[in-house]
Specification:
By secondary structure, this protein is mainly alpha-helical. It has helices at about 25-50, 60-80, and strands at about 5, 10. The protein is about 55% helix and about 5% strand. It binds zinc ion.
Length: about 90
């Protein structure tokens, strides 16, 4: 029985039923990419959770962000520069 490699799409005859890659290199490449993709997806999930305000600690974070924003607005109204220019 011939199987197609999940990485390079080459047809090969597997030594075992579960073999999905033509060689170790393809298996390594595939899993590295999958791991990286998973890491990216998890990072995006965390980012989305932050944006949606879901998850733990976000209410506090939002409140803190509001305080910072209020301070910036107050500073802007007072007419004083937030940062001292160093040129
Ligand atoms: Zn392959």
């Amino acid at each position: 029985m011939v199987t197609r490699c999940r990485e390079c799409d080459k047809e090969f005859i597997p030594n075992t039923v579960r073999q999905e890659f033509c060689n170790d290199y393809c298996r390594g490449t595939y899993h590295r990419r999958r791991y990286r993709q998973q890491a990216v997806e998890e990072a995006e999930d965390r980012r989305e959770a932050r944006l949606n305000g879901d998850g733990r600690g976000t209410e506090e974070e939002r409140q803190k962000a509001n305080e910072v924003l209020a301070r910036i607005v107050a500073q802007g109204r007072s007419g004083k520069p937030k940062f001292v220019r160093r040129i």
